[in-house]
Amino acid sequence: MVIAVGNETGADSVANRTAQAYQDLRTLILSGHYAPDSRLTESELTAQLGVSRGTIRSVLARLAQEGYVTTEVNRGARTRSFTVDEAVEILETRAVLEAALAAKAAERATEEDIAAMTETCRRMWDHQKPGGRDEYVRLNHRFHEQIRQTARQSTLTRFVDSLLYPLVLRQYSNADRTNPRLDSVKEHEAILACIVTHNPEAAAAAMRHHLSAVRRALQLNFSVPDDTSSAHGHDC
Ligand SMILES: [Zn+2]
Fold first, then answer.
1. pLDDT tens sequence across 133-181
2. Which of 45, 60, 78, 157 has its CA at 20 to 30 Å from residue 118's CA atom?
3. 98 Cα to the center of ligand 1, angstroms
């Protein structure tokens, strides 16, 4: 958005404040600042974001439309939470979309793209140890990000973003666990090998295999109530 400096009309400045408040609240939600299914009250948000109730209402309406929050009569707005079945559906959808992105990446990867992904996998090995999980998860995310960038297919990328997977991962991350899921770096390397050899079908199959393993790990960890003792994760 272009911000007119010095001669903003009233309408422009309201639009700018709303856009900023939307960005701020969305960032807070994505960063895990609020637990899943947390109540978001207008009075707390106006104080926190420094905007009017009217602005907060329109921001919440937009976030509800995009799936970040839910709004119900008498319950107000709450941050989104996902059942295990919903999380599984999201991972199934990711598998379809990201397989297509991996295929595109295999067609379009330059030597620089490949070098960047190779470096990410190398660093994942360095952090594949007890206590290394946070950095491992970050690198994991970067690898998927690099595939999207390599694919250069903005429509697929937009659909993947709309799945809100970061919120699913946050809810089902099993925060007490410090060990990374050990197979994910090997699965990433299998995808990368198909990209290096410019084989789209094999890259898509390797990505589908990877995301099915992530889905099975999630189901294994969270489908059985009260079983949080497992050392497996679904970092992705
Ligand atoms: Zn992954």
1. 888 889 999 999 999 999 999 999 999 999 999 899 888 876 556 667 7
2. 157
3. 10
pTM of structure: 0.82
User: Same domain for 126 and 198?
Assistant: yes
Same domain, 100 and 200: yes
Residues 103 and 209 in one domain: yes
Gap from CA of 96 to ligand 1 centroid (Å)? 14
Q: How far away, in angstroms, is 136 Cα from ligand 1 center?
A: 10
What is the 45 CA–ligand 1 centroid distance (Å)?
34
Last residue of a domain, one of 79, 103, 134: 79
Tell me the HSE value of 153 on the side-chain side, using a 13 A CA sphere: 20
Rounded distance between C-alpha atoms, residue 129 and residue 214, angstroms: 18
Q: Which two tokens stand for residue 111?
A: 């030597």
Nearest residue to 54 (alpha-carbon basis) of 16, 18, 22, 96: 18
**How many domains does the chain fold into?**
2
Residue 42 sits in which domain range?
10-79
